[in-house]
Request: fold
Amino acid sequence: MKGFLLPLFFLAGTFSLPAQSSDRDDVKDAIDLFFTGMYHADTALVRSTLAREARLMSVSEAGELKVESMDKFLQSVATSKGPSFFHEKIWNYDIHMELPIASVVTDYTFFLDGKQSHCGINAFQLARVNEGWKIIQIIDTRRKEGCRDDHYNLTDTLHRFLDAWHHAAAVADEDAFFGSMAPQGIYLGTDANERWERDYMAFWAKPYFDKESAWAFKARDRHIYLNDAQSIAWFEEKLDTWMGECRGSGVLRLYPEGWKIEHYNLAVTIPNDKMDKFLKKIRKQKR
Reply:
């Protein structure tokens, strides 16, 4: 029996991960195909992504739930003025799966005949049936204000947010600095013992923020990364500080009220060719 355990385990490990990855891709493809059909006024393509029992709903800003006729929706697609009349721009995909079903939330902006109409989120429910992944329900929200367009760049927005956070410390704007951090936000300082929770750090740093400037860090060479849902970002940056060059890294999360810093780590950088001298000095101080 022992001779068969390794091959069976190996086969299970080999095939399970690609299947999961394929399912996620197939779910995204089904949603993309739905909007491709809308864009090209191809009702047959739209219908091919839908389960026979699929439902379409919308929630107004006033909280009213409206159930829309799928047949009426398909008719509106068929009788549109042609390709690109209905254009729904999807900005991200937040996919959660528990086979054989999937839930997907997307941010969108809807353009009608080339003009921005409204925006909001779509919440898709899909099921993997005999014919493949099919959409069984779509519910959306709709608003007119605060819509993203093709000129919106989330990475630029996060660069400005982080620059403003550093600037708040430079001008001793306590509200802006700590208001940019999540309530449970953590700040790791350069000392091994510096692990500050946001509110405790605000208490400790108050004498610094009572001055004209708490500290002045100038960021450069920053790199920002995003998850697929564009709700979590992580970054690293080099900083010009009174300590010389430092490195900062952190995690941001999107909250209903905007982006907040969940975690920040500040570290002093030491050139490799100076490390031996640095270590000797540290050891001497510890004696």
User: Anything to note?
Assistant: Residues 1-19 have pLDDT under 50 and may be disordered.
